[in-house]
């Protein structure tokens, strides 16, 4: 079953000579990688201990390693045959009466064995640590895609058994969101054939998802809540090797946010944070060009969830900005925020703003004139940071937030007219 989105690509940025040295070193080790991986799988997983499984395990392991090396040697989209091959393996696993838990365990064991050999090979040819990190990350992402393909094949073959398992997993997901005790989690997870992780995180998805079609669903160990009015996923061990990149690849082109990693019986809390982060992303108040990680936007989430009271304070505290021209205010607000966040180090602030340090110093002199002693009062720094966060989130260069502007005149008279004239200059 071929189709768009079912090929696998590696995101490796290696020089040609590095590619060649790495590929040659690993090619020499393929027989050893396959032999050791199969032996360890059979030793640790009773379901694969039978001698009849040796040939199948060797074939699957050898093909996976070979295709990974092909993609290192010839970057670019490979044939989609590797995805189809592992989809068929999933089908055969279901027909053999084995669940995906055993398959996932076998993949994890094989991956650890392969990474050990990879470390030896790269040490032998004196590869930089940065290259090793790249290759390991891509190897885990690659294996995650193969696991998902196998899960798809398993689901297609499992029929009614799969429907029952799907129902049980959906019940488990709902109960986890509601909040379960540890013992209840273990019991329901056992019925749903879901290995209970120590920690997990929730991913909130946009209702009525306008993103591209889902060619492959989430990995087999992810609880899938895409059917819900407020769709979500529950992701075990989200900080594990390759997991973050795998999620970003799967969710590319979609609005999604991930909550904090928590003990599995507290994923309802993670989902609440994820939904808050997604809401801010959909409103354009936090960057949304990729998977939003809630814990990377804690100040924005804390402030913007209480936007009304902070906006009220901002309208008063930042009023001196009105002494600047409209097309200057955004730049000066941005500069003030960067200076406060960098501990008043002009060079650090300049690096954040991509301007020269002298530009920052000149702007700060003007801000000193406008704000006076308030700007140097340490008791006000936190308030300034909060109000600037809201002001900058709702403004853009040349355009103030809709609630920010001059006070209405307190009464008619020459005093008000003179004040307005001076402000207009």
Automatic annotation (TrEMBL):
InterPro entries: CdaR-like_regulators, PucR-like_N, PucR_C-HTH_dom, PucR_C-HTH_sf
Entry-linked Pfam families: HTH_30, PucR-like_N
Occurrences of domain PucR-like N-terminal (ranges): 20-177
All copies of domain PucR C-terminal helix-turn-helix, residue ranges: 333-390
Protein name as it appears in the record: PucR family transcriptional regulator
